[in-house]
Amino acid sequence: MPSTYPSFRCSVPWLILFLEAVFIVLFYFLFSDVYAFFSYPDLQDVSHMLIFGFGFFLTFLKRYSFSSIGFNLLIVILGVQCSILMDNASVFLTGRTVEAAMSMVAVVISIGAVLGKINPMQLIVMTVVEIIVFCMSRWINVHILEVSYRVSMMHVHLFGAYFGLAVSSRFSEPPPRAEKNASTPKSDLLSMLGTLSLWVFWPSFNSVLPPQKNEAIFNTCLALAVSAVTAFAVSGLTTKDGKFRMTHIHSAALAGGVAIGYAADRIKYPWIAMILGLLASTISILGSFCLQSCLNPRLKIHDASGVHFTFGLPSVLGALAQVVLSVMEIQTKSPSIGYEVVLIIGAFCFTISAALVTGLITGLILNFKLLKPIPLSKYFEDQMYWKFPHLAAGF
Amino acid sequence: MPSTYPSFRCSVPWLILFLEAVFIVLFYFLFSDVYAFFSYPDLQDVSHMLIFGFGFFLTFLKRYSFSSIGFNLLIVILGVQCSILMDNASVFLTGRTVEAAMSMVAVVISIGAVLGKINPMQLIVMTVVEIIVFCMSRWINVHILEVSYRVSMMHVHLFGAYFGLAVSSRFSEPPPRAEKNASTPKSDLLSMLGTLSLWVFWPSFNSVLPPQKNEAIFNTCLALAVSAVTAFAVSGLTTKDGKFRMTHIHSAALAGGVAIGYAADRIKYPWIAMILGLLASTISILGSFCLQSCLNPRLKIHDASGVHFTFGLPSVLGALAQVVLSVMEIQTKSPSIGYEVVLIIGAFCFTISAALVTGLITGLILNFKLLKPIPLSKYFEDQMYWKFPHLAAGF
Amino acid sequence: MPSTYPSFRCSVPWLILFLEAVFIVLFYFLFSDVYAFFSYPDLQDVSHMLIFGFGFFLTFLKRYSFSSIGFNLLIVILGVQCSILMDNASVFLTGRTVEAAMSMVAVVISIGAVLGKINPMQLIVMTVVEIIVFCMSRWINVHILEVSYRVSMMHVHLFGAYFGLAVSSRFSEPPPRAEKNASTPKSDLLSMLGTLSLWVFWPSFNSVLPPQKNEAIFNTCLALAVSAVTAFAVSGLTTKDGKFRMTHIHSAALAGGVAIGYAADRIKYPWIAMILGLLASTISILGSFCLQSCLNPRLKIHDASGVHFTFGLPSVLGALAQVVLSVMEIQTKSPSIGYEVVLIIGAFCFTISAALVTGLITGLILNFKLLKPIPLSKYFEDQMYWKFPHLAAGF
């Protein structure tokens, strides 16, 4: 009975066109010249990750694959334009296209937390709000907390995960064994396609900003490798009969890349990167148990694609590792490093609180009647948003 | 009843071997040395687009996925060899591998128009004829109409689309609601895989030839971004209940990249690229309605994968934009630009008429009894061409 | 009845963790500095091939797709770490990350031969043994047989195929028409996804080591092109009604790239590369008939993904071509080339015998009770190793 679905005909298209018109006008005023300072291989790898990697990574829901991949495209593109403008408007003015695209990872991660629960209208509002807030948080990180530009960018996973969780807490939980909130082997395979793309391109992501690119790449590769291997071990240990779970592999294989983000170019010994990958993967899988059985039900949070343990916990670990590395460097370097440690911790606390507070506020905004929040019974369903030609023919 | 299918055993394999033998002999005489002047990243991106991107882009038909992807591989490879030889034989002698591969986009687009309606025999004949004609048309463009080499190459979408349509007009239309001429959600997703690959690599395509690579890349990215966003808006507006259609996203997301092709490196302001992307996407979706409901039935053309509105109309728009840009430059530059405008229009008209005329002739040739055209009832079916091992086991 | 499956809970995870601990300790002692001498584009392409390309290439079995792609990831990553350590421990000391990844192709090929027949425990043991043996065989090739480092690396296909076959001969054959030992159109398409990825990236693989990169790339492209085209011709000729078989396209399309590996940078004329591609493809498809109907049943070998004719025979052809090319160069160059020919033949014979002997021994080891070999009835089945969430919900 399609008549029972709300129609977004008078809202979503016009909102998109309005935003696009605003972007074009702003580009007209702000960019007197073509804005072309970037390395194309970096841009290509990051856009491959965002469009192709995250797009397929999110297609694990059995009835939500069109929306996962389609809306991911929409959101990434809208967000990147918004991010380019924000970068340029802010005092950075280093503002380069690749960095603008990297910021979008925060939004894509957040969307993972509310996947299937918010409509395109809400998605767009959330994207614009989050990218603006994240850009401001980075500005404060760099200009007030004196954190390096590179580290401020690596907060992208942390910010994305906790912003998404805070938003998610404002939406009602689906029943624990909802038929639609599940994957099939086919959709898990598609999601694996995205995961492997992300896995292969992750070293590019971590090496865009550091000057010592090769060190960053090599350390990221090692951390990713160890975290993927450990994922199998820990996944096997957490089931009664030693079988693996594909969802564990999806999330834990990437955990190493997330955790090493902050310090990829500063790690001097390969074994440190490997240990970090091992810890990240273990925390990710063990965290998935604790969170799903204890914390989430109590806080009434439903984390649709497990962004908390895929991106949140590993980035907390990464921040911790960065602090430890800095402390270890004290003995060898100047005493000013103590001040640096305080700043790193301050930036971390500030970013996580900013994400949680603005996420909560955004969650409240998204529940406004104006944005037509969808009822619980219509969660995780493509049919609300997509016209299927085959349905006419009795598929 | 497989006995009712025509067998291509005595024709297709021998035709392929004959062509391959001819190519090897010609390579023997023409290339005394290894022909290795090219940039590998460019070649890799273009071949990724042709083999992987277009291959999956065409897999939307529910019972034709093996043929879509398999024959695409066959055709691309045969065509590239043919194209290398033509480039070398022609007076260009700049003839480089990447450009030879780029020409193949014309053939792949044309094949989209007759997808599922012609057999491998006809496909191969069409490929060879089209690549020769396109190469000659480029030669005339460059040497007689004095158009730049770069612009002559960007006619590839225009030529491909109208050649394909002309060929398609010589084949009978399938019944409007043919069961096999439809997609399923799975096949639409596979097609989306191809679309996203094409989308990510399109900036590479537009930046192979221009010397100002970064400008071309940035403008193409913007045009693609705006066209994908606009695709969602316009798609939502054209359905009664505001739902999106995946086929609109497939075609309109790429329209911006096609439209900006001609002038990607000459556009000075980002907002022009964005406007072009917006127009391309709008024209593509609105065109799909007008063409499918008015023009195509009247002209008895069946455009299997919508190449007219995916590649044809956007490239017409791109050519128009190029003229407008040239006219606007008159005031600032030398008066000789008026002459340039006439040449651009002339080259455009020549290319489109060459495509239509040679396409019609090719369509007539393809209907020769010798090439065993397939009956209407066998359209859009893999079983004619592929042995399925699982069928023996009662699949 | 999951209770009938053996549980790997007490073995596989601990084995993985043990190996990972050993690797970390060895990295701690062996690498005092970050090990970062590599070209990132090469590393990215090779890892794309290994993780994404081979992963999907092996997903053709209808009930084994999770294991194909998951275990491929596990094995590749474990193997690369092992290979980095071996390279470093050996006297090479050139040991670079890309080369370590390239060696893993041998293991991935071998695993193709026993796909679905060995459990993760056996897989890991086989990986570690094979990578050590292959590294030693390369050492002997370079330091005793005085073969160039590049050629010793190109033995990777030869070694992988014959090692895998030897291991496979120690496992019982599945019944000829086993229901589970088959592909579906969907799984064949996924496998095509992997094949096309491999096809597009193969020129990168062949051009990592040679100094004349562009020649190697161009020759590899030509050989791959001709072999894919020929695959269609020969596949059509070998069926009664001229239909194509997807499995032929999968294997023969890559045969050209394998065959040209040894001499990609030494071939002076494009037509030689093309002839080699044509022969490789023909040998691959004709070989698949001879092997599957005559040799394999007699030797009681079951070659699950046809590695013998996809990688084995083409690499034998490639070695032969290398010898012929060297002999042809005698007249033009110094007489010492006769000695070189002897060395090439010696290295070839040594590598193939080393592969067969150590493969047989490894096959015997893998059948130890300790490693819990799986019974014939559980071959080709994901359910042994993976927890499917949807099964609980009555999928």
TrEMBL record, chains A, B, C:
Taxonomic lineage of the native organism: Eukaryota, Metazoa, Chordata, Craniata, Vertebrata
Name of the protein: Ammonium transporter AmtB-like domain-containing protein
Stored PANTHER family: AMMONIUM TRANSPORTER (PTHR11730), BLOOD GROUP RH(CE) POLYPEPTIDE-RELATED (PTHR11730:SF43)
Membrane topology, as annotated: Multi-pass membrane protein
GO biological process, one term: ammonium homeostasis
Naturally occurring in which organism (per UniProt): Pavo cristatus (Indian peafowl)
Cellular-component GO terms for this entry: plasma membrane
Keywords: Membrane, Transmembrane, Transmembrane helix
Entry's Gene Ontology molecular function annotations: ammonium channel activity
Pfam families in the record: Ammonium_transp (PF00909)
Family: Belongs to the ammonium transporter (TC 2.A.49) family. Rh subfamily.
Subcellular location: Membrane
Transmembrane spans: 12-31, 43-61, 68-86, 98-116, 123-141, 217-237, 271-295, 307-325, 337-368
Primary location group: membrane
Residue ranges constituting the Ammonium transporter AmtB-like domain according to the UniProt record: 39-369
